[in-house]
Amino acid sequence: MTKLQQVFRRTETKYIISEKEFQQLMELIGPYLKKDKYFKGTNCSVYYDDDNRYLAIHSLEKPLYKEKIRLRSYGIPTLDDVVFLEIKKKFDGVGSKRRIPVKLKDFYLYEKTGKLETENANIKQELDECFSRYRLRPKMFLAYDRTSYCDKDNPTFRLTFDRNVRSRNEDLRLELGDYGEKFFEKGEIVMEVKALDKYPFWFVRALSKLKIYPASFSKYGRVTEKVIYNKVKEK
What is the pLDDT of residues 168-190, one digit of tens each? Predict the structure, then answer.
């Protein structure tokens, strides 16, 4: 199996923008960007939580520390394809992501037995503890279509744009397709800025000119909030 990056640490800030704002923004910052290595694709995730969806609800409370556990694929995998079992954490605005690459069929075996062969025993132990502590189960499938860019002069500064955010609460297996109910009614885009250092001046200037401001937005948390609201509304 090809050696893949398994640990990430950076600040992540989200913005919710319209298609028009995206076009205006790219006119201003396009000359400073280049397409990322993984420029275009569909990200699919199955989020794991307890029966009360504690991890999702806790993230909406904007705590100092929060974490989430998910199984992620890039595109729709087969059982023999490599996917990523991830734990994402955020403390005081700084996010970290630790993950294990694993064949999808081996993950399903891990769900049943707790056994998984991996080169990174530390991450597996951390995930084992989360599955045990929260009694995790698959709770939501979530997908979106992403385009990614980075600074021509500093590849650690990355911009991602997520369109067509969609989810489902059944068929919670990655190999079953990327269909789901759309979250945004007007086609809004989730822009996420991933940086190790300060934002470059040209980006700050563009945000200021277009009056684009950060928005607190956890995809899993907000979609869960919508699901809970709709259930209450139906009663």
Answer: 999 999 999 999 999 999 999 99
Residue 220: pLDDT band (50, 70, 90) is very high
In whole angstroms, how far apart are CA 105 and each of 45, 165, 174? Answer: 16, 26, 11
As a whole number of angstroms, the distance between CA 116 and CA 103 comes to 10
Q: Which residue segments constitute the domains of the chain, with CATH numbers given?
A: 7-234 (3.20.100.30)
Q: Which amino acid appears at position 234 of this protein?
A: E
Give the C-alpha separation, 53 to 2, whole Å.
34
Closest CA to 150 of 39, 27, 66: 39
Please, what's the b/e burial string for 167-191 (b: 16 or more CB within 10 A of its CB; e: otherwise)? bbeeebebbeebebeebeeeebbbb
Phi/psi of residue 7, nearest 5 degrees: -130, 130
First to last CA, the chain: 50
- Nearest-5° Cα angle at 63, 62 to 65: 130
The predicted pLDDT at position 132 comes to 94
pTM of the model: 0.91
Q: What pLDDT is attached to residue 8?
A: 58
Residue scoring higher pLDDT (10 or 177): 177
